[in-house]
Design a protein that fits this description.
This protein has 283 residues and is an alpha/beta fold. The protein has 2 domains: 40 residues, no CATH class; 224 residues, 2-enoyl-CoA Hydratase, Chain A, domain 1 (Alpha-Beta Complex). It contains 10 helices and 9 strands. The chain binds zinc ion. The site of zinc ion has 8 residues, from loops.
Amino acid sequence: MPTWFKRERKAIETPSEEERRIRTEGLWVKCDGCGLALWKKDLEQNWQVCPKCHHHFRLGAAKRLELLLDDDKWAELDAGLASSDPLNFVDTQPYGERLREMRQRLGMSDAILTAEGKMNGREVLCCSMEFAFIAGSMGAVVGEKVTRAMERAADRKTPLVIVSCSGGARMQEGVVSLMQLAKVSAAAARLDECRVPFVSVLTDPTTGGVTASYALLGDLNIGEPGALIGFAGPRVIEQTIRQKLPRGFQRAEFLLEHGFLDAVVHRRELKSYISNAFDFFLS
Ligand SMILES: [Zn+2]
């Protein structure tokens, strides 16, 4: 029997599960809120908020400045401040080495950026924390930058916004890091005396020494939806008081209901909300 037809090309092969996984790896992210697979590009364009369930993912420090300030035209202040590792601290890795790695990877000298720029045309000072830098912890540099931002705001009568995202005080700087709580709080009190408005934005997570100092000292304390905000973590509290904590404890909505926050604002509305607040404070 002659062969009338011959298959010349190879059959269409479906890529194996493994191949498919490798090809799309890193392009998708699973939403912690609704479980949906989200295209990373879409998420980026939406300021890291899930378009389906509005779960707020963490936003990097520089992106946050882009979100809040006009036209990406901001100038960084105190960029050169860097920790001197005062205790020569070593945990699983020498602290100095950890700092060097972070600086190289993130291109920042420490866990916060201070910027001067405009918000809907108004001069503002804005500090923005970076969680990726040693869990956004506050050591001497973060404390000093926040203090200087407050002093500048007071001198120039420029309103101040601080966006927090932090695991608390930086353990590797020991008591030097704890001292920042007092220093920053004193600066906040002086800023208050000068009657310059200060808006604090608490994002997921804002905990420990940052919550216990400047993050809750704003004239207006705004939480992002779903943000974990607290001093000690829920497990530590449960073990201490030997009680089960209520549902949603330490989440922004719960804290708003119980008077710890003044508002919970969607990231999409954050800039106009803060801008309106300054209009109100300064009128
Ligand atoms: Zn979602």
